[in-house]
Amino acid sequence: MLRIGLTGGIACGKSTVAQMLVKRGAHFLQADSLAHQLYAPGEPTYDKVVGHFGREILHADGTINRSRLANLVFPDHVDELNAIVHPAVIAAQTRWMAEVERDDPNGIAIVEAALLIEAGADKDFDKTIVVTCDLEHKVEHYAHRTGLSLEAARGEVERRSAAQFSDEVKARHADYVIENSGPIEDTERQVEEIWHELQPMIGR
Questions:
Q1: What domains lie within the chain, and their CATH numbers?
Q2: What are 41-71's pLDDT values in tens digits?
């Protein structure tokens, strides 16, 4: 089985690229969704996060308020959160990849993670794909996704980007770079080219 790490800057279209790969037959796991599960009350990660950042990050029902947590950690305390969450996420995604390999030994497993390279997790994959786009497209994507004004979205994109490597640095770690500032057809073409290149690597 081929293990592919998929990453990129905030609001660059990682999930869009992931769905294009799924359409072609890839198995897919989003690390952020995995982190959401680990934040559930009763999970060891939940206890560690609440213990470290305090109960002010909680909703009234005891669940973690992710926007409040994000406002607290970005950009100065993100390393503290990552130190708690990343080991659990990496362990869970490793288990998932083992299950995929058992069920489909000649398949392609894609894990999307925003901080894949920052966490040093790219070494766990056979290939890494980085999705990039220009700042204006990031702002537009983020505004559309969150319902924020363009001005508010710009501030949030810049703040969150400060806690990540730049697109240029991420691209230097990539086996493949997908530039997602143009038409969706252009992104689809790049995905198809990469998918074609990956096929002969399966089962090596």
A1: 2-198 (3.40.50.300)
A2: 999 999 999 999 999 999 999 999 998 998 8
